[in-house]
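Hi,

Apologies if this is the wrong queue. I'm a grad student, and the batch job for Protoheme IX farnesyltransferase from Thermocladium modestius produced an output file that my downstream script rejects. I'm not sure whether the problem is my script or the file. Here is the sequence I used:
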Amino acid sequence: MESMKLGDAIELMKPRVIWLLVLSAIGGYLIAAIPKINALRLVEIAIAGLLSTGGSAAANMLFEKDVDALMTRTAKRPLPAGSISVKAAWVEMIVLTAAGLVLGYIWLGLMPFIFMLAGWVFYSIIYTLILKRRTWLNILIGGFAGNAALLSGWAAAAPINLEAMLLSFAVYLWIPAHIWSLVMRYSDDYRKAGIPMLPVLVRRSTAISTISGLNILSTIYMLFLYVIYVNSIPGYIILLPFVAMSIYISAKSLLNPTDDAFWTMFKMTSPILTMFILAAVLGLFMQFPP
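Support response: The file is valid. Your script probably expects a header line. Output copied below for reference.
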């Protein structure tokens, strides 16, 4: 394998993107397994999830290297910048993907493996390779990779049921608001690259109302799930401030539709999903005291 800098190899895995998917898998396992947590299984989910999602991110980088070169936001990524060769990137992608999926199957079993594979396919192939340059539905279809992440963790602890499916849609609903608010910030880049994301295809007012409304819906949905399936005071202490802040920022972006407002919304979307998962895990733990 050609030599490469460690920083470039890590950047190829999109660590700022995949950590939330790995967290979703870990959260799915903990929510399903509490109070019978297997520490080794938790480590196995984290390692297999990190490798497989890192492989899918590397595939995304490979398949979009020409588009990344056209966009100011992504032009300095390893492939368009030339700091890593295409050959080395392919090797890294194949090794990460194979290691993650094989370890997932060996350590976690068939069902978690199926969901890990589905997540890889939805992000790398269906979203990146097939849909992203063709239709604004790219996010709405490719977003099922988020469902798959949570379900892979859940399946490592318990059979998939209605609760698991509904919880996985918390990740699914979160994805479009998260991505489209980023697109609003860099809309010129996406137009220049010819990527048909919804915010660059519709009027600005339509994009504002769609993204803000979806972010509010996503936040309320998370709170609804918490009330129905957890409903524990310690979790409310964590979750409610972020719910209030998320709704406030979304409403503010409707009244003051500037790029800065949407950038604030984008930055807020990651904490609300993180806090939802943490609140659910803490809330369930508190229901089973030692």
